[in-house]
Structures are given as C-alpha cells and as structure tokens.
Design goal:
The complex is a heterodimer of chains A (about 220) and B (about 675).
Chain A: E1 2-6, H1 10-22, E2 26-31, H2 34-44, E3 48-52, H3 62-73, E4 78-83, H4 92-95, E5 100-104, H5 111-122, E6 126-128, H6 130-138, H7 143-146, H8 150-160, H9 165-172, H10 176-189, H11 199-214
Parallel strand pairs in A: 1-2, 1-3, 3-4, 4-5, 5-6
Helix pairs in contact in A: 2-3, 6-8, 8-10, 9-10
Chain B: H1 4-35, H2 43-66, H3 71-99, H4 107-116, H5 118-131, H6 142-162, H7 183-214, H8 217-247, H9 252-274, H10 278-313, H11 318-347, H12 349-367, H13 375-383, E1 389-394, E2 399-401, E3 417-423, E4 426-433, H14 441-450, H15 452-514, H16 520-547, H17 556-565, E5 570-575, H18 582-601, E6 607-615, E7 618-625, H19 639-648, E8 652-656, E9 664-670
Parallel strand pairs in B: 5-6
Antiparallel strand pairs in B: 1-2, 1-4, 3-4, 6-7, 7-9, 8-9
C-alpha cells in the first residue's frame, strides 16, 4: 500500500514512516504541513494519507481541513486522521462517508490493530477509535439512545468503529447469533435500516448520530 | 425717506441735543428762580425739582446712548424735557406776573402752561410702565390700551388749556388769555378725561404686574429690581407722616426719604434696562434686608434685656449689660439663620426652595431613604437646571469621575459652565451647569455649599467604586491571564510531552520489530514498556483536559457534549452554537463540569439537563438534575473556586436546591 504521511513532529513522522515500512508498505512522501500534504497527495495519488490534526501554522485544525480537502479532491484516497485528543466536531462529516479513520495518537502503539485499521480505511472502510465513538455515542440528547441497554450501547459503539458482527462477537465473547440479535434491536430502536455489515452499517449509525447531534 | 446713516447719526446726536436742551431749560429756570425774590417757593421744592430732572435726564441719557433701541431712555429724556419746560414756564410766569411791576409779555401764557400741563407728566411715566423692561408692550393687545392712555393725557392737557378755570396759587390774581369753553361742554369732558387718566395709570400698573407674572430669569430680575425701588414710595410716605406726627410738619426726614425715592426709581430703571449685575443686586437686597432686620431684632433684644434687668437691679448694673450682651450673642446664630430663611422665602424663592431640597436630601441620606448617587439629580432639581452634572474629583487618579466612578472627560461639558466645589481645603469636584446659572451666584453657591457634605459622601463612594472597578478589572485580567496560561500548558502537554511519548513508543515498537521472529522475554518486557507509555499518555491527556479542555476549541456546545459523553448520567445538552470569548466559554465549561461532578457524587441523580444560551448580553448556563436536592454551596464544595472565577469575569452563580426537587445551578456570564 502507498502511503503519504503528514506530521509536523520529525521524530513521530519518522516513527510512523518506519512503522509502515516495517510492515512492507511504501511511504511515498512524509511531509510536515497541510500544504505539502495536498501537494503530495495530488502528486502521488496514494491509497492512504495519514494526517495529524494539529499542524503549522496555527496548530488548531489544519490537518482536519486538509482531510476534508482530500476527501473532496481525491475521493479514492483513504484518509486516516491522528489526533492528540478527541475532537469530534470536524470529524463527523468525514466519518459517515467511508474511507476514513480517526485514532488518538497513542493508539498507533498497538501496531497490528493500527495497520489493520489503516488497510481497512485504504480499502474504503471505516476505523474509529473507540474513545471517539464513545464521545459520539455517549453525549447525545436522543430518546432512541436512551432506550438502549448497556449491552446494546456497547454493541453500537463497536458497530460505529466499523467492526463486523463476527468481530464484535469475538470482542464481547458472545456467539454471533446473540450479537445479531443485539444489532437488530439497536437498529430497530434507532429506527435504522438493517445493513449487510461493513461500513454501510457504520454509515447508518453515524448518520443517525450526526442527525441527533444537529438537533 | 431717511437713510440708515442719517438715522444712526440722529440717534448719536439726539441724546446730547436733548441733554443740552434740558440743561439749558434748567439753567434758565435756575436763573429766574434766583431773580424771583418775591416767590414763596422753598429751596427744598427746587432741590427736588432739579434732582428729578437730573436723575431722569442722566439715566435717560445713558440708556439712549447705550440702549438706543429701547424707547425707555428716550422716554426718560422726554420726561426731563417736560419737567424742564414746566420749570421754565413756572419761573417765567412767576417772574413775569409776580416779580416785575408790569406784567411781561407771555407771562399769562406761561402761567397757563404751568397750570395746564401737569397731565403731560403722566405720559412718559405710563409709557415706561407699559414697555418696561424690553421696550415692547407685554402683548399686541396692549397696543390699544397704551394708545388710549396717551390719548387721555393729551385730551386732559387740551381741556386744561381751554377749561373755564381760574388759576391756582400763586397766580390766582390772573386769568387765561386763551379762549375758554363753556362750562356745560367742559365739565362732562373733564370728568371723562379725569376718569380716563386714572384708568390709564391703573392700566400702566397692571401692565407691570402682568409682565412680572409672566417673567422668568433676567426679565424677572429686571422687574423685581424696579419693584424693590417702588416699595420705597410707601416707605417714604410713611416716614413723612411719622415725622409730621411727631414734629408737627414734614422736615428733613421726609425730604431725605423723598430724595432717596427720586434717586432710586430712575436708577433702578436704568440698572434694570442695562442689565448691569442684576443678580448681584438681588443678593445685595437680600443681604441688606437680612442685616437690617437682624440688627433691629438684636438691638431690640439688647434694649429689652438691659432695660428689664436695669429696672430690676437698679440702673448702671454691669450685670444687666453683660446679660444683654450674652442674650444677643446667644440669639445671633439662630436668629440669623431664621431671618435669612424668612428673607429667602419671601425674596429669593429659588434659593429658598433649592436649599430646602438639599436639606431634605441630607435628611433622607441620614435616614437611608436616599443614596449618595442621587446627589447629582438633587442638585439639578435644587438649581432648577436639568443639565446639571456632578463631577467628583479623585486627587489620586488626577481626574473627574461621575457618581458611579466612571471617568468623565471635561470635553463633554460642552457650552456649559463648571463651578468648582470645595469643602475647606479639599477639592471635592465640580458642578457642570447652564451658563445662565452663573448669573444667580446666590442660588448656585448657596445650594453647592449646603450640599457639601452630600457631595463629599458621594465623592468617597465614587472613589470606592472606582477602586472596586479597578480591582475587578485586574481580577478579570488575572483570570484571563490564568486561562491563557492553562491553554499554553495544555498545548505543551499535547504537542510536546505526549507526542514525544508516542515517538518513543513507536521507536520501541520498531526496535521490537527489528529483534525479529521469536522475541521471547525481551518482547514481553517491551510490550509492558509500551503499555506503560500508553498509560502515561492517557494520564497526560486527562491532566491536559483538567488544565484546559481542548474540545473548547470547537465551541462550548462541543465541549459540553464531550463532558456529557464522559458522564455516567443521562445528560441532555441544549447549547447554542454561538461562540463567546474564550475565557467565558472556559468558565462556563468548568461550572458545568463541577456541577455535573456534584450531580454524580452527591445528588443521586439519574438525569441531567445542561443548557447554554445568550440572553441580554450574558451567557446563561443552567445545569439541572433530578436528584435529592438539598445541596449547599459551601467553602469546601468544588463549586466555590469556580464561583470565584465566574465572579472575576463579572458574572454570578446561583444554586437552587430544595430538598427532594433536584439541584439547579445557574451561571450568568456577561459577554456583551
């Protein structure tokens, strides 16, 4: 997989580059600000762009804005955003379109999971940090969410992270049938169409959350 | 048609010509008077005659030259001419008919003139009364009245000339050389003309009265001045009568008071029309009245006490003198104040009312019914000038402030005047007022002096307010600076330490990877190190959030939702998407955070609603739970520190927590 990395801290940038290279991926460019990122993406047309949210000059949301730009200008490029802390406001719009990942930075230390998520995103799937999902799911003023049991909430979180029923069953140490029941219940309570797994399900969940957010 | 230039020259020359004419007439009359050795005319009569002419002419001359547009000066000069002509006529008649052995030609005509023209004197006097003080009639309706009055004067004179009458003394031996009307025609006309003359004089008096009622400000002062002078007339009459009663005939006292009247009335007219230091005269009259009355009262007290005690203790007793002196000394203070008050009430109504208003304010202040901040409004009321502003001087700051401690620029004074207020050596401030008020120094100074204490209290209050405002400002600055500092610290934690830890973690993973296949113990140890690094990063993140929640960058709504997502309670957020100043959003966030923590820890609540909205220039934040209530915002609660920060930003926090009905925390943060 061909990767572009945008990270203003040299040490971390090199760390990420090595991480991808060690796993046999090709890092075609590693840049330190949003403008160079745009240039590199346009030039190399990578499968994945790994983007730090805070970059020069203002260190606020340059990365997030660049992510939106990539999504609009190069929809086939997967975007994986890394952040020091949870900032859901800028992410919501991207999350529901697929080909998008959002992790807190320390999560890259769980190398295999990060690489797996990165590949999922590069293929057009979704990958959300559980803490980001918790933030999206937890704070909603919504009647539907209030009706969920704790177990169903948990399942919803995992659905939003982009996990399949099988992966959820493994994670929760449940049978797949039980998980299917929970998923049906969640989708019913939230009044969402039933999907066939993958990111379409994530889309439905996140679209719902986004709508709740806007209310 | 006259050209304007001619008109101006006539105006300039006419007063001189008239004065010259009057002087000539007076000199002629004087010479004839000296020649008339057989006349019984007394020196006093002549003296008053001359005095009247001199006063009328003198004042008339000044007014005609300085206030030529006002007819009053010309009327006075006319009066001088009429008086001079009468004097010449009388003296010539005396000389021609009584002094010389053979009647001189024109002697009888002069006698007719002398006897017949007295109604003419009323014409200028009535005319002055009609047009005083501005030279115009009180209203157009008075035009007919004035013309009628003058008509009656002229008709009276004509009738006097042509009436079938014998001469009065001293020309009773002679008769008129003019043709005379039959009695049957003359008499009814005479009655009508006389009644008309009386009515005209009454109308003139009425004109003055009407004018006085309508007058304000300077006009009123003008009329009042002449009215004061006019009050001397009955006084002079009274003195004359008293003297006649005591001495048998009117003498020096009567003559002197008559002289005073003759000087005072034209003089007062002149001063009034010239508007020369009118208000000072008001004050002079006021003071004169106070001190004359006071002196009389004290002298009376002294006399009564010393006489009474003198009778009781025998004359020559020093005790009586001492007691009388003591009585006078004791009476002085209170008597003075009382007399001043009575005189003020009667003669300086504005001052009296103004002082009363200030006194009421002082009483109200003492009783707590008024606040010092009202002093400016009270001064405006007392001075009758709604534009009055009270400025308070702060010597430390070297600037003027208003009652609330706000700095006032002197450029805002505009066209008004500034009268400084002092109390002893201390400069208290200044009263800004309409320039017209400076013409009433008695009112202005009296009211300001009386309000001294109130102004001082107001000044002290303003000083405290100002200091308080400064402290509040600096406190807000400190809180804002603290906020900036926290924000910087948060950045440092996230972008510095945390990033570095992630890099270190990645380096370890890389090293771990380069160990190759089966890493065994070393691999497990490295895993543990990476776990440790991850936990440290997590702790750092929590710490940074406590210092300054980064999600505040996305607005208060986002931050509150982030807060809610980490709360175990069902939390509903209804927050405006509007942005507020950073320190306001941060303060609101921490209030919500602390209130939510309390709801979780103490309230046994299951559901919390958080709302944030802008209203009336403030951000209102409300956190309400459905818990047990009964919370107390004490020193130890985490809320106390937050309340301080909110207060430093000029806001307030209120906690309502009735037992059993949940707890509601409401914070108001001004953000205009």
């Amino acid at each position: 997989m061909r990767v572009v990395i945008a990270e203003d801290q040299a040490l971390l940038r090199e760390g990420l580059r090595r991480l991808f290279e060690d796993a046999g991926h090709e890092v075609v460019a590693a840049v330190d600000d949003a403008d160079r990122l745009r240039g590199a993406v346009s030039e190399h047309q990578p499968e994945l762009a790994v983007v730090d949210v805070r970059m020069p000059p203002t260190h606020t949301d340059e990365g997030m804005r660049a992510a939106h730009w990539i999504r609009a200008a190069h929809p086939q490029v997967g975007v994986f955003v890394l952040s020091q802390h949870i900032e859901t406001a800028g992410a919501v719009g991207l999350v529901s379109q697929g080909g998008f990942g959002y992790f807190l930075k320390d999560r890259v230390l769980d190398v295999s999971e990060f690489l797996e998520a990165a590949q999922r995103v590069a293929r057009g799937g979704s990958a959300l940090d559980p803490r980001v999902v918790a933030s999206l799911v937890g704070g909603q003023a919504s009647d539907g969410l209030a009706e969920l049991t704790e177990r169903e909430r948990h399942v919803l979180s995992l659905m939003a992270q982009g996990l399949t029923n099988q992966a959820i069953a493994q994670r929760l140490v449940l049978t797949e049938r039980t998980v299917e029941g929970h998923v049906r219940s969640v989708l019913m309570k939230l009044d969402l169409p039933e999907g066939d797994g993958g990111h379409r399900r994530v889309l439905a969940v996140l679209a719902y959350l986004r709508a709740a957010d806007a209310r | 048609m006259q050209r304007p230039g001619d008109d101006g020259r006539v105006r300039r020359i006419a007063p001189w010509a008239l004065v010259l004419l009057i002087a000539l007439l007076t000199v002629v009359a004087g010479v004839l008077f000296v020649l008339n050795t057989k006349s019984e005319e007394s020196g006093w009569e002549v003296f008053f005659g001359v005095l009247t002419i001199v006063m009328a002419t003198g004042v008339g001359f000044v007014l005609a030259t300085r206030r030529g547009e006002n007819p009053i000066g010309w009327l006075l000069l006319l009066l001088g001419c009429i008086l001079g002509l009468s004097a010449v006529a009388f003296e010539y008649a005396t000389y021609g008919l009584l002094q010389s052995d053979d009647p001189l030609p024109g002697g009888r005509l002069a006698a007719v003139y002398d006897q017949a023209t007295w109604p003419l004197l009323f014409a200028p006097v009535a005319a002055i009364a009609f047009v005083f003080p501005d030279g115009r009639l009180p209203s157009p309706r008075w035009r007919k009245v004035a013309i009628g009055a003058l008509g009656f004067c002229v008709v009276s004179v004509v009738l006097m000339f042509l009436g079938p009458r014998d001469f009065d003394k001293p020309f009773e031996a002679f008769s008129s050389p003019l043709p005379q009307m039959p009695e049957a025609i003359y008499f009814p006309l005479f009655v009508v003309a006389s009644l008309g003359l009386v009515a005209s004089l009454l109308a003139a008096a009425l004109a003055m009265r009407t004018r006085k009622r309508r007058a304000t400000g300077t006009d009123l002062q003008q009329i009042k001045l002449v009215a004061y002078a006019a009050t001397l007339i009955p006084l002079a009459v009274a003195i004359g009568w008293t003297e006649s009663l005591i001495a048998g005939s009117a003498g020096v006292a009567a003559s002197a008071s008559a002289g005073v009247v003759l000087i005072a009335i034209p003089l007062s007219i002149g001063v009034a029309v010239m508007r020369y230091r009118l208000y000072e005269i008001d004050r002079l009259v006021n003071r004169t009245l106070v001190y004359v009355t006071l002196t009389a009262l004290l002298a009376g007290t002294y006399a009564v006490v010393s006489l009474t005690l003198g009778v009781a203790l025998g004359s020559g007793s020093t005790l009586a003198t001492a007691a009388a002196t003591l009585a006078v000394a004791l009476a002085f203070g209170t008597l003075r104040a009382r007399v001043q008050r009575i005189v003020d009430r009667r003669f300086s109504r504005a001052r009296y009312e103004g002082l009363r208003r200030v006194e009421r304010h002082l009483v109200d202040l003492r009783a707590g019914r008024a606040v010092p901040e009202q002093t400016g409004a009270v001064l405006a009321e007392a001075l009758g000038d709604p534009t009055v502003e009270l400025l308070l001087w702060l010597p430390d700051a070297d600037e003027y402030v208003d009652a609330s401690g706000r700095v006032v620029s002197l450029s805002a004074v505009g066209g008004r005047e500034l009268t400084p207020v002092r109390r002893g050596e201390l400069a208290l401030g200044a009263v800004v007022h309409d320039a017209a008020l400076s013409e009433q120094p008695d009112l202005l100074e009296g009211v300001i002096n009386a309000a001294g204490l109130a102004i001082e209290i107001t000044r002290l209050r303003a000083e405290v307010q100002r200091r308080l405002a400064e402290v509040q400002e600096s406190r807000a600055r400190i809180v804002t600076a603290g906020y900036e500092e926290r924000r910087r610290l948060e950045r440092d934690l996230h972008d510095g330490a945390q990033q570095r830890l992630v890099s270190i973690g990645l380096a370890i993973r890389h090293a771990q990877g380069s160990l190759g296949g089966d890493t065994g113990d070393a691999g497990a140890q490295l895993d543990a190190v990476v776990d440790e690094v991850t936990r440290t990063i997590e702790e750092l993140r929590e710490m940074a959030r406590g210092v300054h929640p980064a999600c505040l960058d996305d607005g208060l709504g986002a931050a509150l939702r982030d807060l809610a997502s980490r709360s175990p309670l069902r939390t509903e957020i209804a927050a405006t998407t509007e942005r507020f100043p950073e320190q306001i959003e941060a303060a609101a966030y921490f209030v919500a955070s602390e209130a939510l923590t309390n709801s979780v820890k103490h309230a046994r609540a299951s559901h919390v609603t958080v709302s944030a909205e802008r209203s009336n220039g403030s951000l209102f934040l409300r956190i309400a739970d459905d818990g047990v209530g009964g919370a107390v915002a004490g020193e130890r609660s985490g809320l106390a520190g937050i309340i301080d920060r909110v207060a430093a930003l000029g806001g307030s926090v209120s906690v309502s927590s009735p037992p059993g009905e949940g707890t509601a925390v409401v914070a108001e943060l001004p953000c205009a």
